[in-house]
Design a protein that fits this description.
By secondary structure, the chain is α/β, with parallel strands linked by helices. It has two domains: about 280 residues, Alpha-Beta Barrel (TIM Barrel); about 80 residues, Orthogonal Bundle (DNA polymerase, domain 1). The chain has 15 helices and ten strands. Strands 2-3-6-7-8-9-10 form a seven-stranded mixed beta sheet. Strand 9, helix 8 and strand 10 form a beta-alpha-beta unit. The structure holds iron/sulfur cluster.
């Protein structure tokens, strides 16, 4: 398959998220140097329409857009933004071997002392361990390696050209030895053929054995061309799978699949992974980086609100209760006044002035502030 690089000058490189990605990656910004990916994994959500825009999804792995000015833009744009966690870089090969744009972006992140988060399938980022160590010293670095399973048959079927899982685990170990927070995005968990206890525990155990400290698990999403390709790959693996997958995604022959697995399935997956993590002494959420300062208390309280929302998801409570915690999390996270100060000055009525924070949540936050200072 011929590979073509399409170099261009981007107009903008940083995405500013409306809200922090609470409970998951905790990032506020993201910036990536390439569009498309040579690995071309069948299940890659980035091939779904919502990520590629007007680009032809079939060229996702043959035409790689290269933002040649990514590092310069990053420097300009970050200089205007408040420091917060940025997801940055993309160590895909051969693009990064040739252009080294991710390394250039890391230099910017280091110079401007932003905390950095990386989610990767490529172990090539170890080449930049010197910069990662520097950033970790002056701000913070967190890395997650995406590992769907350790099963070679699933790797061959769904991600035949992605870097080997063993190399990802070796890279994880090197990061852990350099005191960098590292864990696994157990994503996407492949329904029916890769979601049993045995498959999941292999990844959890390998993460623990290689110095990872947490697991974030998520199911396979299905959309457009990506859904059709993933189904085709599944059929090659096991010709009997189609009916079960169609049922799982409520996918009629002439219709579209549901975007995600059924809620009950996702809850069961979360509970199984929680249990496995407990057994292997790992966390099933990523700890949040919080910079010191007067608003640190807001970030810590927001973290607790988001984690509580996830717990409630696993308890299958009504969605309005889950959303109440999420919305309160965003309100606290985005408040420009220390909520400890708010509470000292105006008590619970002051907390209730935050959007989405009612009587009961104001009481909860007040308890957290007084009992253990939100820690
Ligand atoms: S390596 Fe990641 S970005 Fe590249 S195709 Fe695979 S899942 Fe998508």
């Amino acid at each position: 398959m011929k590979l073509e690089f399409q170099e261009y000058q981007a107009r903008k490189v940083v995405n500013v998220h409306k809200h922090v990605d609470g409970g998951w990656f905790w990032d506020k910004y993201s910036a990536h140097p390439y569009v498309g990916c040579r690995s071309g994994c069948e299940f890659c959500y980035a091939r779904g329409g919502r990520y590629l825009g007007r680009r032809d999804p079939d060229t996702f792995d043959t035409q790689i857009g290269v933002k040649t000015n990514a590092a310069e833009l990053l420097r300009k744009e970050l200089a205007r933004l408040a420091p917060d966690v940025i997801t940055c870089g993309d160590w895909q090969q051969p693009a990064e071997d040739r252009y080294r744009l991710s390394r250039g972006m890391l230099e910017v992140v280091r110079d401007l002392a932003f905390p950095l988060f990386i989610v990767e399938r490529s172990p090539l980022l170890i080449r930049d361990l010197d910069l990662l160590t520097e950033i970790n010293r002056s701000a913070w670095v967190g890395v997650v390696f995406s590992i769907s399973s350790l099963d070679p048959a699933l790797k061959r079927a769904f991600e035949p050209r992605s870097p080997g899982v063993g190399r990802r685990l070796q890279a994880m170990e090197r990061l852990a030895k350099a005191d960098i927070l590292v864990g696994t995005a157990l994503m996407p968990v492949i329904p029916i053929v890769g979601d049993d206890q045995g498959h999941l525990e292999e990844v959890v155990g390998a993460t623990k054995a290689h110095g990872g400290t947490f697991i974030l698990a998520g199911g396979l999403t299905m959309e457009g061309v990506q859904a059709a390709r993933t189904m085709e790959a599944a059929r090659h693996l096991d010709p009997t799978i189609e009916d079960r997958w169609r049922k799982h995604y409520n996918w009629q022959a002439d219709g579209k699949p549901a975007y995600s697995s059924p809620p009950a399935y996702s809850v069961q997956l979360g509970l199984t992974v929680r249990d496995l993590c407990a057994r292997h002494r790992l966390r099933d959420r990523m700890p949040r980086y919080v910079a010191p300062g007067p608003l640190a208390i807001n970030k810590r309280i927001a973290e607790r609100l988001f984690l509580k929302a996830y717990d409630l998801e696993l308890e299958r409570v009504q969605s309005h209760r889950i959303w109440a915690y999420r919305k309160a999390g965003w309100a606290v996270d985005e408040s420009q006044e220390s909520i400890a100060q708010t509470y000292d000055n105006r008590g619970e009525p002051g907390l209730r002035e935050l959007p989405g924070v009612g009587k009961s949540l104001a009481g909860t936050i007040a308890d957290w502030l007084t009992v253990n200072d939100g820690g």
